[in-house]
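Slide 14.
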Amino acid sequence: MATINQIRANRANAKKSTGPKTTAGKEKVRFNSLVHGLRAESTVIPGEDQDKFNQHLERLTAFWMPCDDRERSMVEQIAVTQWKLARIDHAEERIYAEGAMTPVELSLAIHRLGLTQVRLERSVSSTIADLDRYRKDRLIAQAEAEAEPAAEPAAESPAEPQTDSRTSEQYRMGLVWSSSEGRSYSVLPRVCGLDGIWREIPREVLGDFSHPPPAA
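Slide 15: predicted structure.
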């Protein structure tokens, strides 16, 4: 475990760093600002490998493919929590080293590490559930926003008056006489002239039947 002096020395050295100077180095970190947030920048403590954490975060980002700031924040939280779980595993290796602690100290350290591990594992599961739920709600809201509004029912136009094929404003069908000898008009059809007067259509013009009944 790093001492206080080592931590201070590492912090002082970090302040002197001006970032990568080579083209390859700049290309490697040029997307960091798009992925890494404040928590990701402060997660790696002295003695740990920043590049390994960056790779871990990038793998999770490639898997989850966050689409907005909230999703990126939750993916980052998962990466940070998993990184802390790995740190507990390393710490557990050290406390079991021979002579590192007294039996009482070892028992207390194991208890504390166990509680911390359970808390972090629950945090990972809870964040994944929140991410899934948020993503589902976001996709549903997006689909509803993109859906075309339902077409409003067209206003019903006034129904046109239904006209009988036999009777209209200009024509009135006559009555047909039926007998064993044939059929003919007993009442002639009529038409309405331009002057508004109804007139019968002459029987000779109709010529529908060859044997008309005798006139009454």
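Speaker note: The first helix runs from residue 4 to 16.
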